[in-house]
Write a structure and sequence with these properties.
Layout (H helix, E strand, L loop, with lengths): L10 H21 L1 E13 L4 E3 L6 E9 H10 L3 E5 L12 E6 H6 L1 E2 L5 E5 L3 E24 L3 E3 L4 E3 L2 E7 H5 L3 E12 L3 E5 L9 E2 L5 E5 L1 E17 L8 E3 L2 E9 H5 L7 E5 H6 L4 E2 L2 E3 L5 E6 L3 E4 L9
Parallel strand pairs: 1-4, 8-12, 16-19
Antiparallel strand pairs: 1-3, 2-8, 3-7, 4-6, 5-8, 8-11, 9-16, 10-15, 11-14, 13-15, 16-18, 17-23, 18-22, 19-21, 20-23
Length: about 325
């Protein structure tokens, strides 16, 4: 018996043959016609000085037919687009809001697609639009912060923002409701010293309001925590006539305050006041009121003693709760 050895086959040759086979199959497949559903980028072009007042979907879903390579090209480069031009004659005066509807037929006609791709059906019946006039407005920048200080430290002052305001641009109707613009949230942990942090403006209404791309910086004053107490702080009766028969007791209370060590060091007794409103004294049905402590904005009121005051036309003893 004669045994013959099989001829050796080079791995590179096998790989080339497999690659050629796959290429031929892919070439034949990409030339075939396919029907599929695509999300087509949608763009609304308005006359100068006009803008949308409500957000719309950024894409338009449609059933299309075309060669495989053309459909793949759309996924790579968005070769199919829907661009709707709204003429000035369809809009009301600049002072008024215009509400109009783009029909399915108009949307179909607005689709721009390469030769060989046919749009068979758009999945929406119509597209409602609300159009207004563009205006500008200066609003306050509101930082959104999540700050946790190291134990024994405190944010001693309100955060400062630079710049503290920006000019935004958008629909007159939308801007009328806006007085401030928030930033993105910044999370800070284990803070124990003053810090400046760059922060980005929020882009929640990016499709309706144009926000300037300006650098925003938030400054935080962080100090070691300190407390101080003031005794015999006088009670002021605000809004009382020159002659009245009401009395509030006790007439002096003690206050404990907390703040940054530098802020506490600068605090003087005349910076603190305690008051009650005369109208609240007259209208009180229980005969007790909680006093209101006024302190600098960077100082926290921790405790007052007594917590409640007695008021009335008779001299009463104070209750210390």
């Amino acid at each position: 018996m004669r045994i013959t050895k099989p001829l050796p086959v080079a791995p590179l040759s096998l790989f080339i043959c497999a690659l050629l086979a796959c290429s031929l199959w892919l070439y034949a497949s990409m030339r075939e016609e396919y029907t599929t559903v695509l999300d087509i980028p949608l763009e609304i072009r308005l006359p100068a000085g006009r803008t949308l007042e409500t957000e719309i979907a950024p894409t338009l879903r449609a059933q299309v037919q075309g060669a495989g390579w053309q459909l793949v090209n759309h996924f790579l480069s968005s070769s199919i687009r829907c661009i709707v031009y709204v003429p000035e004659k369809r809009l009301a005066r600049e002072e008024e809001q215009s509400n109009l509807t783009i029909s399915r037929q108009m949307l179909t006609q607005a689709i721009q697609a390469p030769i060989g791709i046919a749009v068979q059906r758009i999945m929406v019946d119509s597209l409602p639009l609300a159009v207004g006039s563009i205006t500008e407005k200066r609003v306050v920048v509101r930082p959104t912060l999540d700050v946790q200080t190291r134990e024994g430290f405190i944010v001693a002052q309100m955060p400062s923002v630079a710049p503290d305001s920006i000019v935004i641009r958008g629909s007159r109707t939308i801007l009328k409701r806006l007085t401030s613009w928030n930033t993105n949230t910044v999370h800070l942990r284990d803070m124990y010293e003053p810090i400046q942090v760059p922060i980005a403006l929020n882009d929640t209404l990016s499709g309706l309001v144009a926000v300037p791309q300006v650098p925003i910086t938030v400054s935080l004053v962080i100090q070691q925590m300190a407390e101080v107490g003031f005794d015999d702080v006088p009670i002021r009766l605000l809004g009382a006539p020159s002659r009245h028969s009401f009395v509030v007791l006790p007439q002096r209370i003690s206050v404990v305050l907390r703040g940054g060590v530098e802020s506490i060091a600068k605090l003087l007794p005349e910076n603190i006041s305690v008051a009650v409103d005369y109208d609240e004294v007259v209208q009180s049905t229980t005969g007790t009121l909680r006093p209101r402590v006024n302190a600098p904005s960077d100082i926290q009121v921790i405790r007052i003693s007594p917590q409640f005051l007695h008021c009335g036309k008779r001299i009463l003893a104070a209750r210390n709760n």
